[in-house]
Structure formats: structure tokens, C-alpha cells
Design goal:
- It is a single chain.
- The chain is mainly α.
- It is built from five helices and no strands.
- The protein has a domain of 81 residues.
């Protein structure tokens, strides 16, 4: 679902119908929740799939079997050994996603009527 459409759906549902969150504004931290959620909807699924497959591959590796044979605790194996190796591709893709999120923030900021980095980058390209 495109970001502008999910933003409009969130405005109607969470802002107008349920009145849980403000529709626009920059006064409080709640004003930024809906735009942040909309921007995260595009990046999180790919990162979660990559993290899951990376952890599955890392936990099946020989060095994890060796760590278990040495008697290391499960949390230490997961946090120190498996997560460190599984996080490398996630960090790489997250850096690329950051660029896409900056480009998508221009649209999201216009939907939610927010001034932000997306509008600044758009104005800098136009020379304003």
C-alpha cells in the first residue's frame, strides 16, 4: 500500500473516527506518531524478513554448535554470537532504506502537513 494512501487511511481511522491521535500539528510528540508509523510500514517488513532469515542461518552454523558444546548459555549464544553475524545484512539494508524513507517523507509530510527534512530536501533540489 503506498504511503500516501495508508497515511490518509490512518488520518480517517485514528484521527477522525476514533480520535486517538491528532491529524496534524507540531506541538506535541503525538503529532509525529502517525507519520512515523506510515514511514515505518514500508521499511519494517523487509528488515524483519532479512533478520529472521539471518538468525535462522546463523543458528544453524557450525560456530553456534561449537558454542553450545562449550556450554555457553542460550542468551549468550544468541546475543553475542548469532545476532552479531545476523545483523550485518540488516544494517546494510537499513542504510539503503533510510534513503528511501527520506524520499518518501516528502509525500508523508505533505499528507500530514508537517514541515520536515523531506520538504527541506525538496526545496534544496529546487534551489529555494
Amino acid at each position: 500500500m503506498p504511503g500516501f494512501w495508508s497515511g490518509l487511511v490512518m488520518i480517517v481511522l485514528l484521527g477522525l473516527e476514533l480520535q486517538w491521535l491528532p491529524i496534524s500539528g507540531v506541538e506535541t510528540w503525538q503529532d509525529y506518531l502517525m507519520p512515523e508509523i506510515v514511514l515505518a510500514f514500508s521499511a519494517i517488513p523487509a528488515l524483519m524478513r532479512l533478520a529472521r532469515s539471518g538468525m535462522i542461518d546463523a543458528l544453524a552454523a557450525d560456530y553456534i554448535r561449537t558454542a553450545r558444546a562449550k556450554g555457553l548459555s542460550r542468551p549468550k549464544i544468541i546475543l553475542k554470537h548469532a545476532l552479531r553475524n545476523a545483523a550485518m545484512p540488516v544494517v546494510s539494508i537499513a542504510a539503503v532504506q533510510l534513503g528511501f524513507m527520506l524520499g518518501g517523507s516528502e509525500v508523508i509530510e505533505s499528507v500530514f502537513a508537517l514541515p520536515g527534512t523531506g520538504m527541506w530536501s525538496w526545496n534544496s533540489r529546487l534551489g529555494l
